[in-house]
Design the sequence.
């Protein structure tokens, strides 16, 4: 299907437009996520956008130019920032990798925010962009090292007694934290089973909503549904008028947690389920995830996720710190970002309507399951 598109795009960026049929300057794709995207020439693209927004063609053209100016400025600013750290690009693959990361970060801003930016001058934008935190260290490739090589970190010692030790220690540490978390989940499950306050049947109804509940009755609840429900019950279910999630709060009050398990429960209590974009993947280790609501970004250690998702895709999950690392909770599905756009608008609208004074984090914490239902 790629050939279909490239066949329409000629050298110099000219395209055979699917709308007007003329050969002209490439404007873009009308439906980029479709398996058979339509090519539109520059003129058609502007005309369609003017019609959609109910503005003049000249105004639409100005908007498009401003949008391009802003995204180019962001890319320029961030590429320079990377070069200030890395000094130089080693090869074209590195350029592409960094460009893809920068583009993914740019795409975590929603269109309304981008429109607002387009009204600002370059200097004001530069100041804004410099404050967007990037995670360059995660992107830097270390050259492959043999055990007896002099370590690339510059210590002068052999790799096997230098950074290799730290890297192996890190793997052990992450496994250790994952084990602690497994125990926290088990203790939470036991608490739920033994609870006399929880009416699991009606909670299932509430969580799944009418449609999914009817489906569950007809076809049965899948393991994945159950995992999702347990995750919500454990992390996000509040009794009316209680300030803390029911299960996590009770776990903390109990005397059965070790010091590290306690830390994990506290971390889970602070972490809402939110929407993240995968901005960069380190295969076999984890991925950089950027929160679509506040643009903070963390490296999450999860080998499975590093293999099952793609950069630029959106995830709906909970990220929480475990010691010096970050883990994810529950199963996850990834979605193309286009698919998510409307849903995010919907949840932000719901947020405004709810007039929560406590900010988007608590809102997501209490209403994340509703958003999950949207997906
Ligand atoms: Zn056209
Ligand atoms: Zn070293």
Sequence:
């Amino acid at each position: 299907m790629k050939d279909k598109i490239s066949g329409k795009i000629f050298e110099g960026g000219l395209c055979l437009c699917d709308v007007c049929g003329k050969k002209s300057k490439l404007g873009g794709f009308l439906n980029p996520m479709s398996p058979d995207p339509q090519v539109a020439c520059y003129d058609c693209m502007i005309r369609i956008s003017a019609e959609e927004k109910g503005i003049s063609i000249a105004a639409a053209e100005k908007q498009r130019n401003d949008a391009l100016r802003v995204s180019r400025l962001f890319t320029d600013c961030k590429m320079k920032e990377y070069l200030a750290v890395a000094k130089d690009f080693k090869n074209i693959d590195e350029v592409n990798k960094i460009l893809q990361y920068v583009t993914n970060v740019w795409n975590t801003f929603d269109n309304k925010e981008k429109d607002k930016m387009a009204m600002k001058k370059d200097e004001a934008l530069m100041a804004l962009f410099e404050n967007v935190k990037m995670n360059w260290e995660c992107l830097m490739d270390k050259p492959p090292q043999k055990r007896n090589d002099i370590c690339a970190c510059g210590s002068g010692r052999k790799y096997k007694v230098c950074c290799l030790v730290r890297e192996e220690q890190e793997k052990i540490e992450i496994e250790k934290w994952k084990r602690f978390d497994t125990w926290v989940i088990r203790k939470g499950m036991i608490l739920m089973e033994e609870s006399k306050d929880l009416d699991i049947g009606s909670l299932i109804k509430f969580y799944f909503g009418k449609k999914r509940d009817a489906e569950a009755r007809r076809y049965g609840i899948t393991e994945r549904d159950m995992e999702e429900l347990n995750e919500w019950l454990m992390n996000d279910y509040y009794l009316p008028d209680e300030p803390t999630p029911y299960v996590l709060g009770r776990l903390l009050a109990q005397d059965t947690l070790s010091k590290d398990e306690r830390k994990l429960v506290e971390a889970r209590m602070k972490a809402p389920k939110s929407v993240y974009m995968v901005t960069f993947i380190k295969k076999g280790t984890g991925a950089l995830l950027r929160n679509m609501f506040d643009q903070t970004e963390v490296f999450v250690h999860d080998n499975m996720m590093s293999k099952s998702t793609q950069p630029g895709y959106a995830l709906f999950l909970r990220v929480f710190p475990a010691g010096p690392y970050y883990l994810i909770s529950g199963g996850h599905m990834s979605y193309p970002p286009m698919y998510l756009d409307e849903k995010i608008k919907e949840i932000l609208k719901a947020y405004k309507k709810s007039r929560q004074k406590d900010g988007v984090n608590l809102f997501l914490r209490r209403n994340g399951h509703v958003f999950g239902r949207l997906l």
Q: What stands out?
A: The radius of gyration is 24 Å. Residues 17, 19-20, 22, 24, 40-41, 43-44 surround zinc ion (ligand 1) (CB under 6 Å). The CA atoms of residues 174 and 325 lie 7 Å apart.
